[in-house]
Amino acid sequence: MTDKSKSASIDFKKVMRLALTLFVFAAVAALCLGVVNYITKDTIAKGKEKANVEARQKVLSEAEDFREVPGIDKIAASVDAENAGIVAEAYTGYKNGEIVGYTIKTKPKGYGGDVEVLTGIGKDGKIVGITILSQSETAGLGARSTESEWQAQYAGLDASKEVSVSKNGADSSKNEIQAITGATITSKAVTLGVNTSEKVYKAISAGGKQ
Q: Which residues contact 164 (CB under 8 A, 6 or more apart)?
């Protein structure tokens, strides 16, 4: 008669050796990842900052140097409490030591998630330009917000007035932009980011924030 208890017995030594081996492999892998992260983190940070500076110069081309505006959370809350949470940062742009304008980054909610919008406003109170830093909108629809031709509509608009979205032919003299066909939600999200940036701009420019 077969001894079932013996055939079903577990070799704990073998199990322990296997567990120890897996632990060692996991520890080595984690250590390697940590080392790689430590070595590359500065490079990644510098690359990200370079991309941010290039984006600021894209929407405020006259600026040669940028300085972050401190206390942007409080400023945003004071001018637009409802949408203050979408304001991520603001920078003052300089050329030869003189202020030439401001860039404000916002993250309004679009159809597929947050749309990261960077708006440049000149010292003369006109929108210089906008760019989309990141988005997860529908391809062929909301994702068209990244197209330079569509973004160009905002350039030259009056930053002292609210920008509105039209679905039936925009009139720039009325501070209007044409919505992306089939993507009104995205169009309005980007415009919300721009309008919120305008409010922040008025506050920091009037207060001499540098």
A: 174, 175, 176, 177, 191
Task: Write out pLDDT tens, residues 16-68.
Answer: 888 888 888 888 888 887 777 777 666 666 677 788 889 999 999 999 999 99
Residue 50: φ, ψ to 5°: -60, -45
Structure tokens at 138: 């529908």
CA 186 to chain centre: 15
Please give the Cα distance from 136 to 36 (Å, whole number): 29
**∠ at Cα 56 (53, 60), nearest 5°?**
135
What six digits make up the tokens of 147? 């197209």
Select from 75, 82, 87, 78 the least CA-distant residue to 119: 87
Handedness of CA 123, 126, 128, 131 (dihedral sign): positive
pTM of the predicted protein model? 0.78
Length of the chain: 210
C-alpha–C-alpha distance, residues 126 and 154, integer Å: 9
Mean pLDDT of 121-138: 97
Give the count of beta carbons closer than 10 Å to the beta carbon of residue 52. 17
The tokens describing 35, both together, are 């080392």
In the chain, where the domains are located: 60-206
